[in-house]
Write a structure and sequence with these properties.
The chain is mainly beta. 12% of the residues lie in helices and 40% in strands. Strands 2-3-4-1-7-10-9-8-6-5 form a 10-stranded antiparallel beta sheet, with helices on one face.
């Protein structure tokens, strides 16, 4: 929904690029029916434009989104350094690892695969078994599998889609649970993203993620996305629901 809402907003914006977006997940989406996206032209200024997008299913809001777009201009430059990390070469494909794990699970515990459009390789993989506690930090390489052409807007949309794939995971790592833990309930509650520099989503990017806090059945996560040459292209933040369901 983040990627689709950004694309819908772009349909109403000319000669500007998105520099930030903020959104809330209000209700679960229904993958069986289309989503209606309503775009509100909040403001068109000299340098900036703002858009609000509401996603609707079954006559109710399921998601709302706001984004700001800016005319490209030059200014001061600095950035955080990319952390030292093994490259993507030689690391296992997360989709293959996920498929292998799911093959040993009952059918009702196998979630729909979300990794198909992108290739992701974890530097710091999750433990496949419950009870193993890990630091609230992880790194992963990712890239879109198919070429997207030269439109920078589509590359932003693709990065927005990829940004949600591993972000929440850092907050469950210290608690001895895995994505396959039967009682674990998770959901994205909100998501924010800032685009710093243009990038080709079909090239490898390093996603550095940490979770400085978990409380109140919510985990807070921060992410930095770097090109392979060390250029910081985007930053993200997300709070998500993380709780153990009570036995029936």
């Amino acid at each position: 929904m983040i990627a689709q809402a950004l694309l819908a907003a772009y349909k109403t914006v000319e000669n500007r690029v998105c520099h930030s977006l903020h959104c809330y997940f209000i209700r679960p989406g229904d993958p069986k029916i289309p989503i209606v996206f309503e775009v509100d032209r909040s403001r068109d200024g000299k340098s900036f434009a703002t858009r609000r997008v509401i996603a609707i299913q079954h006559g109710r809001q399921i998601f709302n989104f706001s984004a700001s777009f800016q005319t490209v201009e030059r200014g001061f430059e600095h950035q955080s350094q990319m952390p030292r990390s093994p490259g993507p070469e030689g690391l296992p494909d997360a989709a293959e690892v996920e498929a292998e794990l799911k093959a040993h699970l009952p059918q009702d515990r196998r979630q729909r695969a979300r990794l198909e459009p992108l290739e992701m390789r974890f530097v710091d993989p999750h433990s496949p078994v419950d009870g193993v506690k890990l630091p609230p930090y992880q790194r992963a390489w990712f890239r879109i599998r198919k070429a997207l052409g030269d439109d920078p807007r589509l590359h932003q949309v693709a990065l927005a889609y990829c940004s949600d794939m591993a972000l929440l995971g850092a907050s469950i790592r210290p608690h001895g649970v895995t994505w396959q833990t039967l009682e674990l309930q998770t959901a994205s509650l909100d998501h924010a993203m800032w685009f710093h520099r243009p990038s080709d989503a079909g090239q490898w990017h390093l996603y550095e993620i940490d979770s400085p806090s978990a409380s109140g059945a919510r985990g807070f996560n921060r992410g930095a996305i770097f090109r392979q040459d060390g250029t910081l292209v985007a930053s993200c933040a997300q709070e998500g629901l993380i709780r153990l369901r009570k036995p029936a």
